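I am still learning, so would you mind making up any protein sequence you like and the tokens describing how it folds?
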Amino acid sequence: MRYNIATGVKHVKTKTQKTLIGLTALTFPAVIALSGGVASAAVGYSLFGDATIVSGGNPGNAVQMISSTTNPYGGVDYTDATGFTFNNLTNLGTDYKITAGDCGGGSPRFQVNIGGHNVFVYIGPFPSFTGCTLNTWVSTGNLTTSPDARFDTSQYAGGNFYSTYAQAEALLGTQTVTGVQLVTDSGWAVAGGNQTVLADNTQINTTTYTYEVPQPQNKNDCKNGGWMDLARANGSTFKNQGDCVSYTNTGR
């Protein structure tokens, strides 16, 4: 299954378009393309597809990612998780809860971008990555220390569909990571055609993402480009400084 996912813009002073390309070995042939912008953003990550910040996290907020016939994918692009080599990816994991559907079809998963391709890191019970318990928070633990063959390196010469982290590190260890995403995109593969996943406390190396979106407290927070690193309580972003200032006056 081939994906062409444009995750939109990183909300910093200069907005930069990022395009991510994935290839899933566990799924059935289809093509998904997104050429729009992000659904919402905050410092350190941006959301794409059908992904939103919701309450009901573990604790606090969580990111909700939905794959359905209407919106085939949703996910998180960790915009500050770049610039280190793969052998310096020493911590990767998340808390997750399936609220509709199941794990399956290669989703949910992490994607680690290296050299224009992806290492897929499958989430869910090993070895089938299916059979998740509904409505229960589960921790993946640190996937880089797991002995399970969860790392799909098949996009690279000499890679395999199922590798341990040690095997993936031996293949790609000195290459630079250019991005990391968490993706849900297999609604087609689960009962009911809807795969809904919550994620919280996502860890990439020393950073933990809790999805508690920073909000402007007053109009001064919106000035000098500050509006680009802030969001409303529901995770949606601001169009410009005036939109942010209006929110501080009336929207809260």
Observations:
- Residues 1-42 have pLDDT under 50 and may be disordered.
